[in-house]
């Protein structure tokens, strides 16, 4: 039996209290990519955050955050999650981040595929959305490779690093994912979907 949450390179798992040092590094790495600038958070804040995530449970299955762990080393290399979901309209929004020292190894794309497979195949969502700052070319390129399509651009929508930036809206439909990643479906790894419709819930952003 192959775990639904394990690929060739990464394994998605719940966040543990000891992950706080990794998430503190990820916050610095995201700022280096030109993400929103926030006041520095203390080590104790990061400890409390991962402790809360570790005890919060998996939520309702539609909005959640998971650690991305390298299969070969067991090291946490990033995070991925669904941070907005509209069950009635059938769409969700997701995010993925990989630490600077672990990029360009295929971790982000595999983590994204594992999460998208769950949301489309098990939770039966119709569409995934991603919001990406226009100057973040690596993220834009990643999502184009995954099959996301640029659906719009909000001009001068985000203010960071002293100026306004465009925000690119990208989307992928369930059938587009199925066509591109037909081989990504696991063989007898989990029971068939129960047929329950997605339900709204609350969980933090994937970042």
Question: Could you write a compact summary of the structure shown?
Answer:
The chain has helices spanning 20-32, 43-56, 107-122, 137-146, 174-180; strands at residues 10-13, 64-70, 76-86, 91-98, 127-133, 149-160, 163-173. The chain has 207 residues and is an alpha+beta fold.
For the largest beta-sheet, the strand count, sense and barrel status come to: 7 strands, mixed
Q: What integer is the average pLDDT?
A: 87
- What is the succession of H and E elements? EHHEEEHEHEEH
Specify the helix fraction band.
25-40%
pLDDT < 50 runs, ≥5 residues: 187-207
Class derived from helix and strand content: alpha+beta
What portion of the residues fall into strands of 2 or more residues? Answer: 25-35%
Number of strands: 7
Q: How large is the radius of gyration?
A: 17 Å
Total number of helices: 5
Oligomer designation: single chain
User: Strands across the major sheet, in which order?
Assistant: 1-2-3-4-5-7-6
Shape: globular
- Cα-to-Cα separation, first versus last residue: 31 Å
């Amino acid at each position: 039996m192959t775990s639904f949450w394990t690929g060739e390179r990464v394994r998605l798992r719940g966040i543990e209290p000891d992950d706080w040092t990794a998430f503190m590094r990820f916050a610095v790495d995201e700022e280096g990519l030109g993400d929103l600038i926030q006041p520095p958070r203390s080590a104790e804040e990061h400890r409390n955050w991962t402790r809360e995530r570790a005890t919060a449970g998996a939520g309702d299955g539609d909005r959640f955050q998971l650690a991305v762990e390298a299969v070969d080393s067991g090291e946490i290399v990033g995070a991925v999650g669904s941070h907005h979901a509209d069950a009635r309209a059938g769409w969700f929004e997701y995010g993925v981040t990989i630490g600077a020292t672990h990029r360009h190894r295929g971790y982000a794309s595999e983590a994204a595929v594992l999460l998208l497979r769950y949301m489309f195949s098990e939770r039966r969502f119709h569409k995934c959305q991603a919001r990406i700052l226009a100057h973040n070319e690596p993220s834009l390129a990643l999502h184009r490779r995954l099959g996301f399509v640029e659906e719009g651009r909000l001009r001068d929508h985000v203010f960071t690093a002293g100026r306004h930036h465009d925000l690119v809206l990208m989307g992928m439909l369930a059938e587009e994912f199925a066509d591109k990643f037909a081989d990504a479906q696991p063989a007898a790894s989990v029971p068939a979907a129960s047929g329950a419709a997605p339900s709204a819930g609350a969980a933090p952003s994937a970042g």
